[in-house]
Amino acid sequence: MPRMSEAEKQRSHNRILDAAAQLFRERGVEATSVADVMKAAGMTHGGFYRHFESKEDLIATAFWHAVDDVVSDMEREETSEGRKKERQGYIAKYLSQAHAQDSRNGCPLAAMGTELARTTGAPHQVGAQALDRMAALLQDTSETGSGQGLAAMALLMGTITLARLTESEEEADRALEAGRTAIGLLQDYWPKERS
Amino acid sequence: MPRMSEAEKQRSHNRILDAAAQLFRERGVEATSVADVMKAAGMTHGGFYRHFESKEDLIATAFWHAVDDVVSDMEREETSEGRKKERQGYIAKYLSQAHAQDSRNGCPLAAMGTELARTTGAPHQVGAQALDRMAALLQDTSETGSGQGLAAMALLMGTITLARLTESEEEADRALEAGRTAIGLLQDYWPKERS
DNA sequence: CATTTAAGATTACATGTATCATCTAAATTA
DNA sequence: TAATTTAGATGATACATGTAATCTTAAATG
User: Fold this and answer.
1) What residue is closest to D8 (Cα–C1')?
2) CA–CA dist A102, A108 (Å, integer)
3) How many structural domains comprise chain A?
4) B111-157: pLDDT as tens digits
5) What CATH number does residue A168 fall under?
6) Which chain B residue is nearest to residue A131, measuring alpha carbons?
């Protein structure tokens, strides 16, 4: 069947990336094989190494692809006022039953963070970069680097992990509700820069 | 070499459990093979099925073993005043560089939570049970079921995950410090039961 | 139109996997 | 002490894994 045009190769490449980004989040990185990814992308595993150097390469690239996917909308917002508005919506979506039940399309850090932390090399690096990016988005207007964005990120990630760990929707809801309350406290009471 | 006395079998059993509890936390559940565990326990893989029905069985049992190990000290404290005191120490240890760097002996939920959430059956169940247990310990004196314990657990888990994801001790420290501040806010400002 | 190129399929490889049947020697028990 | 039991070792199974060489065919190039 090969060979295909440059444009079609790009499309294949993106299909692999999309499939990997979804499967890695849904089943985990270790639990997903290169063959699984290629099958989900509608190909056989043979062609894989025309697109990526190794599975490790795919992990880093697909993870970053997922981060872009989830985060770039909000980054386009230029004014800090516009962001503040969007941030509330983003947080509400993040702490929703829908997000808890759809890890496939959800926060890549929540789904793969633990696994990336255990890695060394490129996958670990992009994980750390993603953290910077997302914490910056969660940072409330005024002071950057106060740690409030980091705390918010930790709380969000922790909360969906708990919600996904529960055994009923009611319990998941209790976790999500607790997360919402806690995020509110961080926003309302985080100490001002003393300087 | 076999056969060994009943007492020695128990000791073997515990060695397997300890090894599994450590390796699962350090490398992850999927990334750890039954053979790895048995080798770390000083045995060959053949004897494994005299002790456990399956790897899934081991996962659930070893996870619970780790939870007991980490949590049972604090549960022995009877009075809620005694617990309150201990809780602060527990939280300080949890949000420490030492804990971030030693997942092997650290919080089982932080290390395996995401993976357990993806499981079905016994491993998922014990994960949910562990959450109940730990959230109860983090619950501040007064009102149970307010969700404050859940939020605290989410924050703690999220924070070490972030600390482990960073690429330098300084960044890890920033995450841990943010977590400490946030925990304080939860304790100080969590809304009283309206009733 | 002929030649070259390369995307993806096919196949192969060596290794790792969970599981289990069988073997062994020592502890139990009769 | 003799017979029985069984913990753990050995080895085999059947399959999944990451990687790579090779083949096929259509696109790109001349």
Assistant:
1) B47
2) 11
3) 1
4) 999 999 999 999 999 999 999 999 999 998 767 778 999 999 999 99
5) 1.10.357.10
6) B162
